[in-house]
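Example 3.2
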Amino acid sequence: MAKTVRLFLIACVASAGFAAATAPAQAYDIAAALLECRAVAKDKKRLKCFDAVAAGLEGAAPSASRSAEAGQSRPEVVETPALSPEESFGKEDLPKTKEQRQKEKKEKLRTLIATAIEIAKNRRGKYVVILDNGQVWRQLDADSASLLLPPDDEEIRVKITRRMFGAHMLNIVGDNRSIRVERIK
């Protein structure tokens, strides 16, 4: 019973906070009434007191029709353009904002074939691959495999495949050697 009263008190205080944003003078009256209700010792009487305060709040929230009558308009929602499947491939490895975590991509590529602008090794001896579409992939530290790189004058086409549990494998097209990679940009 006490837990229900606490939850109701929280809801009333939240409503009072909303009312405070719309009518500051009314908010002080509601807050005072809530504090008086909180001081009531018996549960049933305290609940009736909170119910009475809540009944007074029903008319306090502005409706959409009243805001339209007052000449206020709703803010417009601006949608960002969707990324192509190629641009979003491997993007789940990048840090995400809250909105990005909430939004799920419906289409996911299983493989991506692109031209490597540069393939180099970092200080740890792991491959870093920069693609023509701007993506940067790095070999995982736990992977010790190596690639057979063609001569410098040849265009290097790479194939990145999505595997289970969010893993990605990179190999040079025409060669069956592959390395485990993660997208870093």
